[in-house]
Amino acid sequence: MQAGVAVLREEPLVSIVTPSYNQGRYIEETIQSVLNQDYPNLEYLVLDGGSRDNTLEILKRYEGRLVWISEKDWGQADAINKGFRLAKGEILGWLNSDDTYLPGAIRKVVQYFQAHRDVGMLYGEGYHVDSAGKIIERYYTEPFDFQRLGEICFICQPTAFLRAEVFRTIGPLEISLRYCLDYEYWMRVAKRFRIGYLDDYLANSRLHFETKTLSQRVKFHQEILETVKKHYGHVPERWIYAYAHGYLNEKLMPHIQGFHADGWASQRASVFLRGDWRHYQYLFLEGTSSMYTCPLSLQIAMDDQVLDEVIIDDAVFCIKRPLWGNGIPTNESGIIEVNIYADSSFTPQAFGITDDTRTLSYRVRKLSLVDGQGGELVLYSDRKAWLFRLALPMLVLWKSLLVNHDIPYVELGRDIRQLRSSLMGSLPGL
Q1: Secondary structure in 3-state letters for 351-363
Q2: What is the distance between the alpha carbons of residues 326 and 309, in angstroms, rounded to a whole number?
Q3: For a surface tag, which of 1, 338, 394, 424 has the fewest beta carbons within 10 Å of its beta carbon?
Q4: Residue in 401, 367, 404, 399 with CA at minimum distance from that of residue 382
Q5: pTM for this structure?
């Protein structure tokens, strides 16, 4: 049964909490997006986990306009919980130290809560942006439905806000969770309070290589499987497929993001170069354009520096572009991100083609790095896609039996071996 909620005062205090750790590259933009809001009654707290980069130097510049604490904590959830306990506001929100609010977001949130007295939590529309703050795509969002939430996380975390009494009733975020602490919290809130949806853009969620959901995809999806099973009793097929996709991507295509196993590329795709790959001088991309996006402009950028831009107006295209231009970092131990931006995209679902909700731009046949002598490191190819398609259903079946039917790994492996022996023995000549 959903709990009741209190009536807000005319201009209630809103408290925003930012958990932080070594995000000096992005945190000032985050801070400014909060402090530049046009809402007058705002409290801002930054809970830092003891950063060793330039984060504290940045925080000191804003003393008097925000409250900050820097001390060792037990992770993101612990920092958020500390902030919410210190907060004095009637409305709470948390904004990670690499995300940003859009102008007017907090005022829109307050107005919605005032107009919907029975809503305990609210979320809105959001964008995915890249490391430079450039919009990649709309974060996939739907009006709230509890059963649907178990199939897909359609709530963009920085767009979510809740009344303080919800936090007091539901309790703190689960500090044992590292990847889906927000998703799990939405499930708990939904069991006690009504969750509202605001059809307006409120925030940007930044995607970059250091993001936990990108750099540790298998662990991220494994935690989701465990969380959904805990709250719903079973894991929908969609999440099983997501886990299998993440696992195979990490094994077969670990150095790319935004290039899907079936060859389609997102509007923003990335290649992650290791420092010891500097002898590869060129990026090679062969593909086909789509009738929904042709002509298409592709911009290739490294570390926010544009390397090249090409216009594609043919059905089949082939691009070979030099890497490591002037001003590109020479850090041999780190990962350097090369982004490929497309100026247009389409969603198959929107055109009635399929129920595919992905944002797509073109199709890749081959993606590789090439050195001066023609030596090639293939990052994506039709062969890798074939291996992916072959392994995917087997991995989905295996994971589904483990998660939804509680068949132990050892027992499952034994039965598969017995079944294979039985089948092979029944075939003549084998």
Answers
A1: CCCCCCCCCEEEE
A2: 17
A3: 1
A4: 367
A5: 0.78
